[in-house]
């Protein structure tokens, strides 16, 4: 539910096997249109033990049942907290000492590999964003570990200075900055589980999955043709 407008975004998730891979397809309806996101399960090893921290999310319904659909008709539903019937955040309440211990362990680990919130390494081609990258892009454009460029007061189409260099426009600066984002150690975007995520094989699988999703007529909510529920202005005001 979108709190300000009262609109409902409906989502369906479906898991299936394709070419020996476990695929999770998420279908999201926004503004009457469907978008698809695909997730691929690459390993059965969770690599860590789950921590039962409960969700802090609240429903926009705020406890309201049977809200109307977009045609004004009652939509049979019961508002529940995401963790119903379990009281939310009980793990945090009962395990404060464990949480502080984990925080200390993480802080001590990163103290040896980070500089001002950025990893320390000397690879100019790629890898995690480092202090050297930040220096080249202009330290004045980073705050609290986040990239917050200070463009010309007249907009991105005007020149800007960063890292001792003057860029023709803010767009030129962003192009250079984005070249560093997401690259691995050899300058590409792959990893040990998928060396070439933008290669021909992955592209072919993705395009096939998308084509199948487009013609699928077994989606939830009667293929998303059922009226979508929506809160009234009075309910949004609550």
Automatic annotation (TrEMBL):
Coiled-coil intervals: none
Entry-linked Gene3D superfamilies: 2.40.128.20, Dinoflagellate luciferase
InterPro entries: Calycin (IPR012674), Luciferase_cat (IPR018804), Luciferase_hlx-bundle_dom_sf (IPR044903), Luciferase_hlx-bundle_domain (IPR018475)
UniProt domain Luciferase catalytic: residue ranges: 1-110, 192-237
Domain Luciferase helical bundle: start-end pairs: 114-179
Transmembrane portions of the chain: none
Protein name as annotated: Luciferase
Organism encoding this protein: Alexandrium monilatum
